[in-house]
Amino acid sequence: MNSELWGEDRYPALTAELRGDCTRCAGLCCTALWFSKSDGFPADKPSGVPCRHLRADWLCAIHDRLEERGCRGCRAYDCLGAGQRAAALCSGLRENGEPEGRAQLCAVFLTLVRLRQTLWYLVCAASLRPAGALLPGLERLIAEEQRLEAMLPQPLPAGAEEQWRKNADRTLRRAISLTQQQVLRGRPARQVRDGAGRRLRGSLTGADFGMGLLIAADLSGCVLTGANFLGADLRDADLRGADLSESIFLTQSQINAARGDGATRLPPRLKRPEWWCEKTR
Ligand code: SF4
Ligand code: SF4
User: Fold this and answer.
1) CA of 69 relative to ligand 1 center, distance in Å
2) Which ligand has the minimum distance to the alpha carbon of residue 25?
3) Which of 65, 99, 136, 194 has its CA 20 to 30 A from that of 273?
4) Which domain of life is it from (predicted)?
5) Residue range 258-276, pLDDT digits in tens
């Protein structure tokens, strides 16, 4: 791919590992996560309790009907490989029906989910050309994450995860700023914190949607070069025909939760959901 912003993937093995493999898991997202019916899950459920649709073989009994059963949240969810990693780290607990075993497995999974959400952004930033000067720091942060993961299933030292995240957040903010400088060439970045239900038009190059509310926003046909989507809520956002190939800090969960079509262009590492309509507008 000929890209102004994206260079080579410096961590192909990690990129591959940051994909959920439900066949090597133990239905951990369906057990460990708290979820609510209003967010597209089957019912309100506390953390640690298995969903009623989880089968004895740890697979979902309604996997092929998630949309029609009102479970869009399940369809969009992506654990970034935390599920199979937790199952492997706690293999002795996987078959253990004891409540303590299950609680420990869930705790390890939730720690891995938190670590890997930030790891995903760090791995993306490492191949971002404008952030080249940050590479040594990014490599240290990625190595530190791997060191924290290797300590599991033992509890992490007090404060270690928080300190690592603080350092990572600082570096990621710098990567966003360097990207904006490159694509905007001195023009101010447009900030959108609340775009819910709005039709967003005009220049969105280098726009900052970080942590923004973009539920049901209309971004169809927009060119979003250098736009930052870190933590933005894209549920039901219209991405049909949008060019996100040079957008930064998008995740597979965000893409899965949005609407797109065969003409939507995605950045490296992200896959077009098979349920997106192939037809263009
Ligand atoms: S935690 Fe991840 S790997 Fe496990 S069932 Fe959920 S999505 Fe699949
Ligand atoms: S409906 Fe299926 S995918 Fe969703 S939580 Fe329940 S078992 Fe998991």
Assistant:
1) 19
2) 1
3) 194
4) Bacteria
5) 999 999 999 999 999 999 9
